[in-house]
Amino acid sequence: IEKSPLDFVDEAEASGRETAAPEMPPLEEVPVATAPGSGQAVEAVVAGPPTV
Fold this sequence. Notes:
Layout: H1 5-19, H2 26-34, H3 39-51
Helix pairs in contact: 1-3, 2-3
């Protein structure tokens, strides 16, 4: 079971982008800054934009 934070970001990013909007370039910059923190942090960030 090797799930790196980057892997999770990639999955969340793709899911969020498809459910949210295709015009979200800052998403790539967000995960990079949240990746070092924790996977959960990235989830919150990805779950934020789609809710708006």
